[in-house]
Amino acid sequence: MTEDIELDYNDLIQEAQKRAYRFLMRDVLKLVAELGDAPGEHHFFIEFLTGAPGVSIPDHLKEQYPERMTIVLQHQFENLTVTDDEVGVTLWFKGKEARLEIPFDAVTQFADPSAQFGVNFDIAPPEAEDDRSQEQDAPEPEAEDDEADKGEGADIVSLDSFRKK
């Protein structure tokens, strides 16, 4: 039945680009982990789905950000660990230490504003465990802006979506 199969090169290219951007993000974070700090003015915004499989964050952060959360790796982070599949980091929220473990597959946006680089990963949020309406979503983190470029696959995003107004 191979006659019924159609190769969709546009979809294949988009998936390959998405994988390439994830590898790039992983390699950048590995370099930062090896250096112990971000070089020069580099800093990173990482938005991720808090309910995605494998995400580990403290309960108080999960309650505050039930769907998405944006973290900033700039001056105050410790114990950055990077594997092929995830990034782990210790951050402080209102003076309280928190360890976060984030699979790369859960990342929805990655940006380095100092390099004017950003990528948006087209990821569907995980299905709700009950029949609650998605209209009951909690407010998004302050660093997010709904005007970020949206599209299929991995797209370059506007850095304005990561700047506080």
Description of the molecule:
This protein is α+β, with helices and mostly antiparallel strands and 165 residues long. It is 20% helix and 28% strand. It is built from two helices and eight strands. It has helices at 9-35, 59-64, and strands at residues 44-49, 68-73, 78-82, 86-93, 96-103, 107-112, 117-121, 154-155. The strands form two sheets. The chain has a five-stranded antiparallel β-sheet. Strands 3-4-5 form a three-stranded antiparallel β-sheet, with helices on one face. A hairpin with a 4-residue loop joins strand 6 (107-112) and strand 7. The longest helix is centred in the first third of the chain and has 27 residues, at 9-35. It is globular and about 60 Å long.
**Envelope shape:** globular
Order of helices and strands: HEHEEEEEEE
Low-confidence stretches: 128-155
Count the strands? 8
% residues in beta strands: 25-35%
The rounded Rg comes to 17 Å
Between the first and last Cα atoms, what is the distance in angstroms?
56 Å
Mean pLDDT: 80
Report the biggest beta sheet as strand number plus sense, adding barrel if it closes. Answer: 5 strands, antiparallel
The main sheet orders its strands as 2-1-6-7-8
Structural class by secondary-structure content: alpha+beta
List keywords for this structure.
165 residues, alpha+beta, 5-stranded antiparallel beta sheet, 3-stranded antiparallel beta sheet, globular
Could you provide a short overview of the structure?
Helices cover 20% and strands 28% of the residues.
Q: Which SSEs are present, and which pair or pack?
A:
Layout: H1 9-35, E1 44-49, H2 59-64, E2 68-73, E3 78-82, E4 86-93, E5 96-103, E6 107-112, E7 117-121, E8 154-155
Antiparallel strand pairs: 1-2, 1-6, 3-4, 4-5, 6-7, 7-8
